[in-house]
């Protein structure tokens, strides 16, 4: 099943629309019942919408529309309530998008903080390794060099050679004669 090919944006929009539709219907019903709401909230946007729509249509048809007749109060109230309902759906969808944006930003900030912490830990570890390396280098420099060890070996060999040479004042040790094997008696 291919999920990427499915129009997820349309499904999301329809879901938000279905969820916010009852709220929009309640607002429309309230707009129809309340005179104040109808007069000051629904009628002005409806008349403005009607005026802009009629001027655009007339210009597209090639007429010069100087004066557009306003809608009657009943039709304007209905159109205003409909516009208010659609604005509510749009506001809910925009709010959902805004909340998702904030959630993504917060998730991105958390990810960056985790990366910064990991980066800091790695830098601390590199510093510790650098200190250990410096200590090892100091130990290597303090240790006698290979050439010095070779010189010491040469001196020791010279001393051995000198000690092993015949000293005229030293008593000579006579070598032991080798014992001949004795024949075994025969029976």
Overall 3D shape: rod-shaped
Estimate percent helicity: over 70%
Largest sheet, strands/sense/barrel: none
Radius of gyration: 51 Å
Which stretches are low in confidence, meaning pLDDT under 50 for 5 or more residues running? Answer: none
In whole angstroms, the N-to-C terminal distance is 106 Å
Number of strands: 0
What sequence of helices (H) and strands (E) makes up the elements?
A: HHHH
Mean pLDDT: 80
Work out the strand percent: under 5%
Instruction: Report the structural category.
Output: mainly alpha
Number of helices: 4
Written overview of the protein:
The mean pLDDT is 80. 76% of the residues lie in helices and 0% in strands. It has 187 residues and is mainly alpha-helical. It has 4 helices and no strands. Helix 1 crosses helix 2 (35-61), helix 1 (8-33) packs across helix 3 (73-142) and helix 2 (35-61) crosses helix 3. It is rod-shaped and about 150 Å long.
């Amino acid at each position: 099943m291919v999920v990427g090919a499915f129009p997820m944006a349309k499904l999301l929009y329809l879901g938000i629309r279905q969820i916010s539709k009852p709220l929009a219907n309640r607002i429309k019903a309230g707009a129809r019942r309340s005179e104040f709401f109808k007069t000051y909230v629904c009628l002005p946007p409806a008349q403005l919408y009607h005026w802009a729509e009629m001027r655009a249509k007339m210009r597209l048809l090639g007429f010069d529309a100087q004066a557009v007749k306003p809608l009657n109060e009943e039709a304007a109230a209905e159109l205003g309530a409909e516009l208010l309902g659609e604005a509510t759906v749009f506001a809910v969808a925009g709010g959902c998008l805004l909340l998702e944006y904030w959630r993504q930003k917060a998730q991105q900030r958390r990810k960056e903080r985790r990366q910064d912490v990991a980066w800091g830990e790695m830098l601390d570890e590199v510093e510790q390794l650098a200190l250990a390396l410096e200590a090892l280098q100091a130990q290597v420099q303090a240790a006698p060099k290979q050439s010095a060890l070779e010189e010491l070996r040469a001196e020791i060999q010279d001393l051995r050679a000198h000690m092993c040479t015949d000293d005229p004042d030293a008593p000579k040790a006579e070598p032991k004669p080798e014992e001949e094997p004795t024949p075994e008696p025969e029976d």
